[in-house]
Amino acid sequence: MEAELHLKALSLYGNITRADRSTIEWRLAERQLHLKTNQSNSWFIQIKKICLKYDILDCQDFLNNPLGKLQWKSLITKKIHTYWNDKINKESEKYSSLKYISGEYMAKRIHPILTTNTSNCRDIIKLPIRTRFATGNYILQTNRAKFNQNDVSAVCRVCGKEDETISHFLISCTPLETERMSLLKSLREQYIKVLELLNINMHDIDVDFIHVIINPYHLVNYCGTSLTSELCALIQKTSICMI
Fold it and tell me: Which of 35, 59, 158, 229 could join 51 via S-S bond, C-beta 3.0 to 4.6 A?
């Protein structure tokens, strides 16, 4: 919301810089920016602060040397998106619940785990569940045991053998083994293909198999080739059947 407001405010200021110098708006901008201090509540001083926030040159310079409409729009959009991409990605690293998608935010872009090429209703319905896993909002028994005031067991209710962690839920739960065996085999083969394509040793990469199941597109960060993206899409299609 803040970014959108700043974008609209800077767009309006860009219109003022391109206006004729005899207009009231242009003359007011020149006067306010020249005479008012940074403590002023003037709208033009707020624009000046916004420009400084996004590392844009002194906005007063643009009054004398205005950019074209498209140039100005391109400049402010790039600056604002760069600022918020960096800020949000750095903030996301502080939250362990976002470890599967940390550092992957890009303004105006839908994360690939929320996209699908299939018209299969079952796969589409699973997308919100997948998102809850990726953002740490899927409640497992270990979460209930940790945060519930009552005495709640962390043991998996399906098998009753181990604590229900993400790893257990996706890979280790024995009653679900029959259904997932072929899927896990296919996923591992595809995972190895990606690593071979990137010429990376499995032990040298900071992405475990659980990470690949939840967010295979994290691998594209290591090598953004089209073939890597295609393999990740295949992993996504297979892994969504498990969730």
Answer: 59
